[in-house]
Amino acid sequence: MIDSHSHIYTPRFNEDREAVIERACKAQIIQLLQVGCNLEESRTVVDLAQKVPGIYASVGVHPHDADTVNEHVLAELEKLARHPKVVAWGEIGLDFYYDNSPREIQIEAFRAQIRKPEELGLPVVIHTRDAEPETLEILKNNPVSRGGHVHCFTGTDGMASELLDMGFHIGFTGIITFKSAADLREVVKLTPMDRILIETDSPYLAPIPHRGKRNEPAFVLHVAEAVAQIKEVSVEHVIEQTTQNFYNLYGKPDMVWEILTPVAL
User: Fold this and answer.
1) Cβ contacts of 190 within 8 Å, gap of 6 or more
2) Which secondary-structure segment (H or E) carries 65?
3) DSSP string of 89-134, one letter each residue
4) What is the C-alpha to C-alpha distance for residues 134 and 105, in angstroms, rounded to an integer?
5) Nearest by Cα to 139 from 177, 106, 167
6) Taking the CB of residue 68, how many other CB atoms lie within 10 A of it?
7) Angstrom distance (rounded) from CA 182 to CA 188
8) Which strands sit side by side in the sheet containing 2-6, from one edge to the other?
9) pLDDT, tens digit, for every residue of 53-106?
10) What is the pTM of this model?
11) Where do the DSSP E strands lie in the chain?
């Protein structure tokens, strides 16, 4: 399996990051995508990817930190994005639920960054919450030819349909295991198997039976099991298809994927 979006580089894993990677390997996780949310974190994910076989990186500025985006930050991120183990730009987008940055600044930062993956020939990782019309408008007006991953999807079936029409992959997390997520499970039903990615978004959103605990990549199996139940297919099929989907989206020409391997950090 592949955990296509997580944040094990963050402080909540400082005490046991090596053990988390070991547990991921035992759970047959073969690659991890570590996603930066600002310039400092993006440097950290690239450093972790350099140290650990099977870890790959995405760089960008999350809407929560949109007020940090400027020409210097964009230039530094672009340098990082040229590293061979950086496979995407993001996560970028809009978050009108928390509004940690003013909405107009979020929109400006999103527009400034959405041009970068197209310039660099990379896919994009999108975060969107309570901002469906604005997110869709920006994506429609700024197409990314390599496509992208709308991660931790919690939107409507209408938004999902529009994203699929634009060629995006949709990422599902442990949320789909929650009793309160009936509407989101309907979105899983309508999403074609060749557009689904499974992810943990660790350390957040641990799936049942781990809800309330710190999430980690090994728990992505529970997301695969939930997708299998919803789609009425085997877990093996979900794992095989979502792994291939990850390679289709994030692979580079002549790329040889490393297998996740525990190392001393």
Assistant:
1) 157, 160, 161
2) none
3) EEEEEEETTT-SS-HHHHHHHHHHHHHHHHHHT--EEEEEES-HHH
4) 13
5) 167
6) 16
7) 10
8) 2-6, 31-35, 55-59, 86-95, 124-129, 148-150, 169-172, 196-198
9) 999 999 999 999 999 999 999 999 999 999 999 999 999 999 999 999 999 999
10) 0.97
11) 2-6, 31-35, 55-59, 86-95, 124-129, 148-150, 169-172, 196-198
Q: Side chain identity at 42, as an amino acid letter?
A: S
The CATH class, in words, for 2-250 is alpha beta
C-alpha distances out from residue 31 to 57, 91, 181, 235, Å:
11, 18, 27, 18
The structure tokens listed for 72 are: 């210097």
- Smallest CA-to-CA distance from 53 within 23, 85, 86, 81 is with 85
Q: For the chain, give every domain's residue range.
A: 2-250
Are 222 and 240 in contact, with CB atoms under 8 Å apart?
no
Q: Answer for the pair 144, 114: CB distance below 8 angstroms, yes or no.
A: yes
**What CA–CA distance (Å, rounded) separates 58 from 261?**
19
